[in-house]
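Q: What does the assembly look like in three dimensions?
Context provided by user:
Components: two
Sequences:
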Amino acid sequence: MAEKNNLLVKLDNGGVYKSSKWLVRGVSLELYKGQIITLIGPNGSGKTTTAKMILNILKSDEGKMESYTSKMAYVPQKISIDWTMPLRVIDFMKLTNHINNADITEALKLTGVEDLLYNQINNLSGGEFQRVLIARAIAKKPELLVLDEPVQGVDFNGEIALYNLIKKIASTLNCGILLISHDMHFVMSATDHVICLNGHICCSGSPSAVIKDSAYIELFGEHTAATLSLYKHHHDHSHETDGSVAK
Amino acid sequence: MFDDFFTRALIAGVGIAIIAGPLGCLVIWRRLSYFGDTLSHSALLGVTLAYAFSINITLSVFIISSVVAILLINLQKRTKLAGDSLLGLLAHSTLAIGLVLIGFLSSIRFDLMGLLFGDILAVTTDDIALVWIGGIIILGILYFIWKSLFSATVNYDLAAAEGMRPEISNLIFTLLLAAVIALSIKMIGALLITGLLLIPAAIARNLSNSPKQMIIIAILAGIASVVLGLFTSLELNTSSGPSIVVVSLALFILSLIPLEIRGQLQK
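A: Here is the predicted structure of the complete assembly.
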């Protein structure tokens, strides 16, 4: 019963049909509070489409989508603000909610861009803008946070810091996170559940289970799978020379 | 106070400038200037129909503009043509239908110039009431849907994801635009309405660094254009509508100068 109360969204066999083809089909997932689900898959595999179904931007053309929260925040992939609009970071932070200035500054501090409060959005670099986008989503204190490749254009150190932040948010805000990411290191080390998409769900499960799945290996190649499992081991524990786990 | 035709023109014109400010900003932000043009072209058809069936001009223009706007939204979903092509198609076909219909109405004396360029000096007390009451309603609705409309202007998906219902506010915005055109066609004319929507907002863009500031400056620039334009037309005996737009253009050019100077100083 407790589990049931924590359910945020439930997509059952969802799919989107557009221009006489299925962009993605047969996707089922349940997202609970405090959980991080990652969508991985090649370009055009339906990751963004699935995210948009979860957010009710796109209606699922079959199956069923149930939403148990209205406190949603979205960090879309590739968004450009038209230069015809004078828009400062502070205006952008208040876009869909009234958020008080203290919360805004705090969120911007978390993503490392608190100095940019009064800067024009148009003058930000790609990485800075991503940080502002993430800060805006956090400041809303959502129950469901959907991040579509949130760290694109962010420098290497920043990437690690932001991923750590995302991981932390899931527990501090107790919100469910749906993440689209190409960063396998993060996917494998920090997420609870991985869904591998290619027009449909190829395989899904815990990160360690997914890497071993033949569908995953076929999609991403044995090489990636091998590197990642090595990497994962490297993070989890260390090995003795004979391969057994070090105490 | 309303006895003098010039005072009436000023009061009506200032009213239109106040409504045009925020809507003009949205037109610029959403890159809808062509859309405004299309609506005002179709307004001509509205006026013709009003004469043909002797109904209220404002109402008839509002209905025709709304129909064209909704038609456009549906055509965009159904055809493979780009938005600008559809706008051109609708603008010129409604204009042509309007002009053809005028031909049939030869029994009625028709002031085509008045239709195209408006006559703000012929404003009646009723017109003033219409502009101000209509304007308060338009701005009231705009205020009510602002958060949704503005967030959808910045990013549609973001607004949709975060429960702003942008599809509804988009539709309402389109109707508000049609309403402004209906309110002002008699005074500014079909060809120049878009000018009064766009140019003050363009002036404001040059001078502002936040959305709120841009709207306020657009309203002030609109009022200045109307007042200075009307006095110019009185002084030089020029047509009032075009004079307003010319003054607006002059203000726009002035608004560019500070940028240039700032640029020079930085070098």
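Follow-up: Chain A has nine helices and nine strands.
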